[in-house]
């Protein structure tokens, strides 16, 4: 069974540019999460999809971040325009159900560097 | 609100010695607790979780963790560390009854483990 995949693995952009990150969850997982780790700090929650619907977007830092999950399959996270403080590692995770005990399986992350 | 503390930024241990990585948590209700590991240039890998029942949880690669409700701790342990255990370890919590918290995990800051030969 394939795990969570993320693309690209690394992205280097200049301040003010746009970047789109992609996440493909484990097949059959309805729940998809985005997290990020900035400047070696804690991994922080960004948002949670159940199928194509946003269940919880309380962690989205501002309106420069836009997440979508068309058709309830893969998800994209767009940052527009990127700022220096957006640099960090963006992780995607998926889980099969809504039970709190369900394990969230993480992808390898996308390392974003904004210059 | 839920929170996690990993008080040690780094733990150094000699190969073959016991390894302990500390984690304490705070939730309004009862917790689900998780440990993840990140090897160099890799993503987060699930190690183990506590849901309910036996306080001693066994996971992957010989790791185990003990849930202590009175001390609100969930320390990760391995009886005999290997050089290959050198990695970044994250503790995470979710409140069982915290509907406002949703399904999101709250992570600690991570502990870097260095096992020396």
Describe the structure.
The complex is a heterodimer of chains A (115) and B (117). Chain A is built from no helices and eleven strands. Chain A is an all-beta fold and 115 residues long. In chain A, a hairpin with a 2-residue loop joins β5 and β6. The model of chain A has no long low-confidence stretch (mean pLDDT 93). Chain B is an all-beta fold and 117 residues long. Helices cover 0% and strands 51% of the residues of chain B. In chain B, strands 2, 5, 6, 10, 11 and 12 form a six-stranded mixed β-sheet that branches. Chain B has a four-stranded antiparallel β-sheet with strand order 3-9-8-7, with no helix packed on it. In chain B, 41% of the residues are buried. At the A-B interface, β4, β5, β9 and β10 of A face β5, β6, β10 and β11 of B.
H/I helix tally of chain B: 0
List SSEs of chain B in N-to-C order.
EEEEEEEEEEEE
| Element string of chain A (H = helix, E = strand) | EEEEEEEEEEE
Rg of chain A computed from alpha carbons, rounded to a whole number of angstroms: 13 Å
* Average pLDDT score of chain A: 93
> Structural class of chain A, please?
mainly beta
Largest interface pair:
A-B, 30 and 25 residues
Q: Total number of β-strand segments of chain B?
A: 12
Terminal Cα separation of chain B, in Å? Answer: 41 Å
Q: What's the overall geometry of chain A? A: globular
Strand content of chain A: over 45%
| Quaternary structure classification | heterodimer
Helix content of chain A: under 10%
Poorly predicted sequence stretches spanning 5 or more consecutive residues of chain B: none
Structural class estimated from helices and strands of chain B: mainly beta
Shape summary of chain B = globular
Largest pleated sheet of chain A: 7 strands, mixed
Helix content of chain B: under 10%
Distance between the termini of chain A: 37 Å
